[in-house]
Give the backbone structure.
Amino acid sequence: MMIILIFTVVFWIFELGWLMYTYSVMADAANEGVRYSIVHSGGDATGAKSKVITFASTSLHNVSALNTSVTFPDGG
């Protein structure tokens, strides 16, 4: 009975670590897209999306279903 409890706790520790890693990768990818948009301030939504996808794909995640949306405050 004790081994099941230990296994469950260890499993949840790994799952929580993976969840935090995923959050960190997605937040960093979004920041990279914002950074690209600031430096290349021409309203290039395609370039920002590409930068986010490229940055996120360097992680261990499958980004084929990643959906990005780029909007600019001036409507561009």
